[in-house]
Amino acid sequence: MSDGARSAVDAAFADEPAFVPYLAVGDPDYESSLAYVEALERGGADVIELGLPFSEPIAEGPTIQNAVVRALEAGMTPARFFEFVREVDVDVPLVCMTYYNLIYQFGSEAGPRPFVERAAEVGVSGFVVPDLPAEEAGPLRAACDEFGLDFVSIVAPTTDEQRLETLVDVSSGYIYVQARLGVTGASSSVSDRTAESLARLSGVDLPKAVGFGIASDEQAATVVEAGADGVIVGSALVEVVADGHETGEATGTTTDRLEAKARELKRGALEGYGRRTPTPEGTSD
Amino acid sequence: MSSEGERSDAETTGGDPGRGDAGDGKFGRYGGQYVPEALMPAIGELTDAYERYVLGNEDGFMDEFRRRIREFGGRPTPLQRADRLSRRYDTEVYLKREDLLHGGAHKLNNALGQVLLAKYMGKERIIAETGAGQHGTATAMAAAHLDMPCEVYMGERDINRQRPNVFRMKINGSAVVPVTTGRGTLKEAISETMRDWATNVEDTHYVIGSVVGPHPFPRMVRDFQSVISEEARRQSLERIGRLPDSVIACAGGGSNTMGTFHNFVDDGGVDLLAVEAGGSSLAVDEAEGVAPNSASLSTGSEGVLHGARTKLLQDGDGQIVESHSVSSGLDYAGVGPELAHLVDEGRVTPVNVDDDTALEGFHRLSQEEGIIPALETAHAFGYLHEHHEELGEVTVVNVSGRGDKDLDTAIEETAQRDVPNAPDMSMFEGELR
Prior knowledge:
The structure holds 2 protein chains of 2 kinds.
Chain A: H1 8-11, E1 18-24, H2 30-42, E2 48-51, H3 62-73, H4 78-87, E3 94-97, H5 100-105, H6 113-122, E4 126-128, H7 138-147, E5 150-152, E6 154-155, H8 161-170, E7 175-178, H9 192-200, E8 208-211, H10 217-225, E9 230-233, H11 235-247, H12 251-275
Parallel strand pairs in A: 1-2, 1-9, 2-3, 3-4, 4-5, 6-7, 7-8, 8-9
Helix pairs in contact in A: 2-12, 3-11, 6-7, 10-12, 11-12
Chain B: E1 26-27, E2 30-34, H1 40-55, H2 61-71, E3 79-81, H3 83-89, E4 92-96, H4 107-120, E5 125-130, H5 134-145, E6 150-155, H6 156-161, H7 163-171, E7 175-179, H8 186-200, E8 204-206, H9 217-225, H10 227-239, E9 246-251, H11 255-261, E10 271-279, H12 296-299, E11 301-305, E12 307-312, H13 337-344, E13 348-354, H14 355-369, H15 375-387, E14 394-398, H16 407-415
Parallel strand pairs in B: 4-14, 5-6, 5-8, 6-7, 9-10, 9-14, 10-13
Antiparallel strand pairs in B: 1-2, 2-12, 3-4, 11-12
Helix pairs in contact in B: 2-4, 4-5, 4-9, 5-7, 9-11, 10-11, 14-15
């Protein structure tokens, strides 16, 4: 949809495999959350997905569900989220991950436009909306086009060829490749279906970032070796925040552990890139 | 408004006799398919199966469904004149006795239909959510009857409120999975069942319990439930020689409501009244994120939840608030998109009664007609009592379920309130938990 010109999000994948971490904004409170997101950039993030908590997160596993509860209890709202984006001191592109009802309800007119307009003002670069399939995405896509933001679609292992085309048509920024069926959450192995999905997407001229279940440097390396242009990691990082919160750890200590975890994952992604068999044409992008 | 809100409501069933057209899943501005991408292929597969088997009767699916709902379910249910209520209110009151359907509620119409459909589709596992436990028990019965493994997600709070139904599900061989997130009621159970479905979508069918969720569920569930109004309309004509002036059904998610109304929608002279749970108050407490009611048709606003655009109880930001009702089965922050549309069109009138009035209705039907209704159903009788003078000469009330599951709750709640027609509560002393 970007008609040739690369968006900031898309460009973040250009030189080397991108590390795309996720955190729920406001978990466990606004101030700590600022420090945590900034630590992700220091740890090597190329794009950061910022979760705006919704009361019914149907695509999330227990780790992120609990983060959403903590953030909502600490007072996170769409208005506070926009303040957060304005205040957080990072230079990499920020993608807002949330559910459609919050986007739909914001502002005085019904529909996604006021939310997208405000997001653009504060410096959001794109959206991931897990409960908005391509068929219902028209109005959000139109608002994103109007304000120059990206709409990132999720491709699932169950997505067939016909739907794949529909999805790619409405997508920009990157394609979120869901590594396995189910909900978000760290797991110990990377699904075989990831490689299948990447193969199916090889002809698509958008970066492919793999998420769902990536928790270690070795897993990050595996998906990049299999052809991913980036790795998305949420639950494994949210777990660091949750541990820190539950044990009463100082925010600074949790911040350091998050940065270290981010570094590990970014390193894994780079290692995976080094392991790829070189092809005559080089990499897909 | 965006272009998606202007799509027409394709509600015809198409001309191809072997295959119906399920339409685009919109009811005016409501409906749609707001689900994770992982579920979209399954929803497409389900839409295809719905068109072939339900609308098109392929492989004799509907013939088998009708046979089983008759022999296993006990259809048709009677349309019974309520003699004492008719005398009390000086109007003709008829009861559509869905409480006499196998399992004690209308829920089996849908559960049997969907479990059978899952079998035709070659699915190997059934999951369902349940609030009051009526849909869960109906699904557990249907799954046992049709030899399918079944897991039912139920909020922890509802498990405590509805113990008899938990036992029934387990005895039928289903697993009951407690849901501990949020307030532990129907909303959380639906979210958790959707998560299971997103994980196991390839071999699992999600038997959704009401006319909610993504297309094709609202239409398909309505179709399975519309046997209620198909019979009630015919029985009215045969029995009374005319159509009723008013039809009353309680409304939570709206499956008994849509089932009871569907075949009367084109009868302009028949008033359709959807009775919601007014709970203890119609206000929303934004600070606490709680609505002490479940009246999404009366007080809700448009939004997107659990796969559909519909009327919701939400705060100004769009966060879903916790609903409340004395009856678990009405305790939900959303409502079916078609019902929301019929309300906007002015065809269905949303009304509500509070917890106290519902309890009064519970005791009146028990005392004067010998029928202990579900607390959900009792809302309809609360409304009948308060508004009988406005209902015309003939009123049909859907008795959506029986109240065996609610006896503990009804006794405890009555003891705490000033219910004018309560029995002598001293006889229950020592029985209260």
